[in-house]
Amino acid sequence: MDAFQDAIVFVGTTALGTREVVSTPLDTRFAGVEVHATVADNLLRRDFFSRPENALALEMVAVLALGIAIGTRVPASGRSAVRKGSLRAGPPQSPQSYGRP
Fold first, then answer.
1. How far apart are CA 11 and CA 4, in angstroms?
2. How many Å apart are CA 30 and CA 37, to the nearest integer?
3. What stretches in the chain show pLDDT beneath 70?
4. pLDDT of 40-68, one tens digit each?
5. How many Å is the maximal CA-CA distance in the chain?
6. Which residue from 16, 8, 3 is spatially nearest to 39, judged by alpha carbons?
7. CA-to-CA distance for 73 and 70, rounded, in angstroms?
8. How far apart are alpha carbons 70 and 64 in whole angstroms?
9. CA-to-CA distance for 56 and 85, rounded, in angstroms?
10. How many angstroms separate the CA atoms of 80 and 30, rounded?
């Protein structure tokens, strides 16, 4: 029993059909005991996820770029809808104002 002195032991099955299967971001079928062992290893090594210091700036640039990209595309596709009256503001109009008989 000295082999287990000061050790963390996880007991679980990994054989097909007998294991606890969980989903992870990297694999849809991963053995649960392996997930627990990985978590314990990361805690012991103090290997945590960390957010880069420039993450906020990168996110702001990405949102701004996406907003500009969408902003240049949407008005071009919405012009015909505005001309037809489907995007008018205000109270509902009669069917004739929408170009329907």
1. 13
2. 12
3. 1, 75-101
4. 999 999 888 888 899 999 999 999 999 99
5. 90
6. 8
7. 5
8. 10
9. 41
10. 51
